[in-house]
Amino acid sequence: xxxxxxxxxxxxxxxxxxxxxxxxxxxxxxxxxxxxxxxxxxxxxxxxxxxxxxxxxxxxxxxxxxxxxxxxxxxxxxxxxxxxxxxxxxxxxxxxxxxxxxxxxxxxxxxxxxxxxxxxxxxxxxxxx
Length: 129
What we know:
Layout: H1 7-10, H2 13-30, H3 35-38, H4 46-59, H5 65-70, H6 75-79, H7 86-102, H8 107-123
Helix pairs in contact: 2-4, 2-7, 7-8
Keywords: Heme, Iron, Metal-binding, Transport
GO molecular function: heme binding; metal ion binding; oxygen binding; oxygen carrier activity
Organism: Rubrivivax albus
């Protein structure tokens, strides 16, 4: 895949990824249906926003900003303290899908990302339903 064809580039690079992350967390703060997901996060979301932005940058094919700061993401290990089941996975996915829609992510790219996000979100589950 050429650098120009990475999801990172197709989203608009660093600024596009940041807009997507910011919209994701804005929605989490605004939508009452996402309150259980929001409750798993700190009161101040600025650190969460930065970490997701840095992680997605590398995950989407751009600079490995997260790894440069913290080393390997160890996603599952870092999320083990939080109870994540199918409901939390589904809320996270609904929030990200809506953020992609509202940010005008191309439909084909959004479908690819939804599949990839779902694989990761499902892997993050750490409690039975």
